[in-house]
Amino acid sequence: MIPLLRYHSVLLLRSHRWLPPVLLYAAFLAVGVQSGGPVLDSYGLAAFALLPLAAWLCRICVTGEPPAARACAAAATGPGRTHLARVATGALSAAVLALAGSAYVALVADPHASDHRTAVPEVPAFCAGLLAALVCVLLGTAVGALCNWPVLRSTGWSVLSALMAAVLLLVGGASPANAAVSGLITGSTHGTVTLPWLPLISTAVIAAAATAVACRLSSRRG
Amino acid sequence: MRLDGVGRRYGVRGPWVLRDIDLDLPRRSLVRVEGHNGSGKSTLLRVLAGIDAPSTGRITGRPRTAYVPERFPAALPFTAVGYLTHLGRVHGLRGRTAARRATDWLDRFGAGGHARTPLAELSKGTSQKVAVTQALLAEPELLVLDEAWTGLDPAARETLDRAVAERVAAGGTVVFVDHDPRRLEGAADARYRVTGNRLARLPDGAEPDSAERAGPPGPRVTVEAAAPAGTDALADITAGHGAAGLPGRPSVAPGPDGTTVRLTVAAAHSDALLRALLAARPPWHIRTVTPAPDENR
C-alpha cells in the first residue's frame, strides 16, 4: 500500500491539479476568517469549505491516471487496492488542508466566544476545529468516491452530482458535517467547546462504506 | 492459475463477452490467444491479468502478475525511469533495484537514452518500450501481453520475443495476443481461439488459417552440444532433466559423431536454451548453433 500511496501522492503533486482547490481554500480562508473573529465560528467556516474541496481532490486523484497506466498498476496489485490508494491519497491531501486551515485559524482568530468576552480554551478549541474539519474531509471523500469513476463515468454527471451532494450534505439537517459545524457555531455563542466525536465516527463509517463500494466496482466496470 | 466457468459482461444486463471459460495456465508455458477484432480477446486478457473481475465463475491460484497494454499513451508527470521505479515498488521491489532493472531493460530495448525523458515527450514506440519494461522488470510469474509488440521497432520486437522466452524458461507463464500470426511462431505451448464468447483450444502445430499444415512451423534453431565429461549425453538429457525441462522443449537427436546431441527449438527460445545449457552444473559445451532446415516450407 505504501508504494501505491507514494506513487499517487507524487502523481498528484507533480500534476499541479491540486493548485486550484488549494488556492480556492486559501482565498476562502483569507476572506472568511478575519483576524480577531470568534475562534469557534472561524473553525466552523474553515471546516465547512473542506467538504466540496475534499470531493474535488478525490476526483483529481481518481481521474489522474490514463486508463493504460491504471491497468498496469491494477495488474500488479489488484484493482481494488489501487483504487483504495487513489481515494486515500485524495483524503490525505484534504487532511493536510484541514490541518493547515485549522492552524491558520488558531493563529489569527480571537480565542473568545461570539460576545468577545467569554474566553474559549485554545487547545480544546483547536482539537474540536480539527475534528470538525476531518468530518468534512471524510464526508467529502465519500462524495468523491461515489460520484466518480468507477461508480459514475461521465464527467458531466460526476461534477453535477458531486456538487449537489456537497450542498445537500452542508445544509441538510441530518448530515454529520452539518452537525459538526453547527456544534462549533452554537458552542461559540456560549463559549463552550464540544468535540464532535459522534459525527466523526459516523462519517468514518460512511467514508469507509463509500470507498469499499467504489473499490469493489473498480474491477467490474472496465 | 485456473479459470473455472468464467464469464464476463459489462453491466448487469449487458451481453456476455465471454462465457463458460475453463482454462488451465500451467507454469513454464507460453499461451497464444487468437480471435477476430472485437471477439473478446482483450477482455479475456484483462480478466487473466486481474484488471477485470469475472462476472461469474472463479479464478484460483493467481500468481504475481504483470500486464502490457496495446497502447501506452501515458501522459503522466514522470520521467521514464521515475515512472518505472514507482511501478517497480508497486510490484514489490526496492526502489534501487527497480531503478537499476528499469535502466537495464530500457538499454536492452534501445531506449536507454530516453531514461530521463518525461513520459509526455516520448514517441509512441518509446512509450511502448516503457510499458513493456514496466511488466518485465517485476519478473512476474504471469505476464499478459495484449498486442505488446504493436508500435515497437523490429529490433525491440525481437528483444521482446527473447524476453518472453526467458520468462517462460524461468518458470513463468506468458499469455499473449498479437495480430501477426507469425509472432513467436512454433514457440507457443498452447493456442486458444475466442469465437462467439467461447474459448476453444486449437490443435497443436496448426496455423489459424490452414489447419491442415502439420509440424511445428516457424523458424527453428539447432544447437549441437556436448555433454559434460563422464555423462552420456543423450541418456542424461532424456532421462535426467528430460528435454521437456529445457527451455522451449527441444526435440533431441544424436549428433553426427555420437559425442554430441542436437537440440532443435523455436528460434525465440534459442537464447534461453543456450543459457540453460551453459549455466548447467557441470556446464555443457556448445559446438555449433545453426538455423534448422525447414521441412515445411
Folded structure, characterized:
The complex is a heterodimer of chains A (222) and B (297). Chain A has 222 residues and is an all-alpha fold. Helices cover 77% and strands 0% of the residues of chain A. Chain A has one domain (2-217). The mean pLDDT of chain A is 92. By secondary structure, chain B is of the alpha/beta class. Chain B has helices at residues 41-49, 80-90, 95-108, 124-136, 154-169, 233-241, 270-279, and strands at residues 2-9, 16-24, 29-34, 56-60, 65-68, 142-146, 173-177, 190-195, 198-202, 220-226, 251-254, 260-266, 285-291. Chain B has a 6-stranded mixed sheet, sandwiched between helices. In chain B, strands 11-12-10-13 form a 4-stranded antiparallel sheet, covered by helices on one side. At the A-B interface, helix 1 and helix 5 of A face helix 1, strand 5, helix 2 and helix 4 of B.
Distinctive features:
heterodimer; A: 222 residues; mainly alpha; 10 helices; B: 297 residues; alpha/beta; Rossmann fold; 2 domains; 6-stranded mixed beta sheet; 4-stranded antiparallel beta sheet; 7 helices; globular
